[in-house]
């Protein structure tokens, strides 16, 4: 029995794989990630007054700890922990 090839194009799997890899490399080389930050977002990040207030508060606590005058309110700490774990 003889099987004849009828209307079957010659397929080279290695060549088609090379073409796919080449196309994906070209596609990835063309794409680049971009980020745009609005002027409002830039303005808000510059106006971070919370950072300055926080820095002052932390500095005061550090000074109290070094002086040995910092007192921890156990009731407030316990209440905060309970509130945190109830969420």
From TrEMBL:
Q: Which residues form the Anti-sigma-28 factor FlgM C-terminal domain?
A: 33-83
Enumerate the Gene Ontology biological process terms.
bacterial-type flagellum organization; negative regulation of DNA-templated transcription
Q: Per UniProt, which keywords does this protein have?
A: Bacterial flagellum biogenesis, Cell projection, Cilium, Flagellum, Repressor, Transcription, Transcription regulation
Q: Which InterPro entries match?
A: Anti-sigma-28_factor_FlgM_sf, FlgM, FlgM_C
Q: Name one Pfam family in it.
A: FlgM
The entry assigns this protein to a family as follows: Belongs to the FlgM family.
What name does the UniProt record give this protein? Negative regulator of flagellin synthesis
Q: Which organism is it from?
A: Sporosarcina pasteurii (Bacillus pasteurii)
